[in-house]
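sry for the spam today, last one i promise. C-alpha cells for design, 167 residues
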C-alpha cells in the first residue's frame, strides 16, 4: 500500500517538474518575443495567466513528494535528543496535524472548484476555465492527504524507526 502512495507521489512530482519546465520555456519564449517586437514577434498571449495557474498546480504536485523525501522544514534542536520512540511519536503527531491541515485545504479546494465550475469563470485573455486549475490542485491535495495519513500510520506502526525520509 505504502509503495503505491510513493509511486503515485513520485509520478505526480515528475509531472509537476515537466509542467515547471514547460512554464520556464514559455516565459523564455515570451520574454524573447517581447525583445523582438521590432522584428514582428511578440509575447505569448496570456503568459501570466498560464504561469499563475501552472505555478499553483506545480506546488501542489510537488508537496506530497516533498513530505515523503523529508523535505519540509523542521526544527529538530530538541527532538533530536529524544529517544527514538518519542521522535517517532512527534513525527507521527506532525503527520496527523498536517493531515488535518490538508483535509481542510482539500475541502476548501473542493468548494472552490464547485464555485468556479458553477460560475463558469475564465481567465481574462485566454478564456481558460479556472476550475481546471482547481481540479488539478484538488487531485494533488487528495494525494497529499493520503501521503500524510500513510506516513503517520507507518510511523505509528513502527515501520519507520527514524525521522528520515520514508521513500
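last one done:
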Amino acid at each position: 500500500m505504502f509503495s503505491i502512495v510513493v509511486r503515485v507521489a513520485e509520478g505526480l512530482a515528475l509531472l509537476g517538474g515537466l509542467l515547471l519546465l514547460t512554464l520556464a520555456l514559455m516565459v523564455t519564449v515570451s520574454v524573447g518575443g517581447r525583445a523582438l517586437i521590432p522584428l514582428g514577434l511578440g509575447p505569448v498571449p496570456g503568459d501570466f495567466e498560464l504561469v499563475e495557474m501552472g505555478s499553483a498546480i506545480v506546488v501542489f504536485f510537488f508537496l506530497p513528494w516533498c513530505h515523503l523525501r523529508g523535505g519540509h522544514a523542521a526544527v529538530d534542536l530538541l527532538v533530536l535528543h529524544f529517544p527514538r520512540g518519542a521522535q517517532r511519536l512527534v513525527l507521527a503527531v506532525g503527520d496527523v496535524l498536517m493531515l488535518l491541515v490538508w483535509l481542510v485545504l482539500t475541502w476548501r479546494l473542493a468548494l472552490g472548484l464547485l464555485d468556479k465550475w458553477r460560475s463558469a469563470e475564465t481567465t481574462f485573455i485566454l478564456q481558460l476555465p479556472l476550475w481546471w486549475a482547481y481540479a488539478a490542485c484538488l487531485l494533488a491535495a487528495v494525494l497529499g492527504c493520503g501521503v500524510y495519513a500513510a506516513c503517520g500510520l507507518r510511523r505509528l506502526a513502527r515501520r519507520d524507526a527514524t525521522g528520515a525520509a520514508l521513500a
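The chain is about 70% helix and 0% strand. ok im logging off now
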